[in-house]
Amino acid sequence: MKKIYWLAIIIAWGLLPQTAWAAQEKLPWWGILLLVSSISTAISVVLVWKNKKLETFTEKAMGFGAWFWFIIFLQIMVYGFYLAIEKYLN
Hints:
Elements: H1 2-21, H2 29-50, H3 57-89
Helix pairs in contact: 1-2, 1-3, 2-3
């Protein structure tokens, strides 16, 4: 079970900076939304799929929603920090 947590951490550290890099390329708002939601969906599906404690559909749906929004929040924070630092330095 520890392997899946390490895998999730590695994937998160690998994919979260892409949200900040999206600010450099001046993506439209819908491009950023698509990027953030696809990263969050992929990580959430893996985390829920590998969790053996979640047995019913309702538990899996709640677990997916919790992970999805938590990862969305992390990505928004990374994006916001990047924009603030870029604005401060320029």
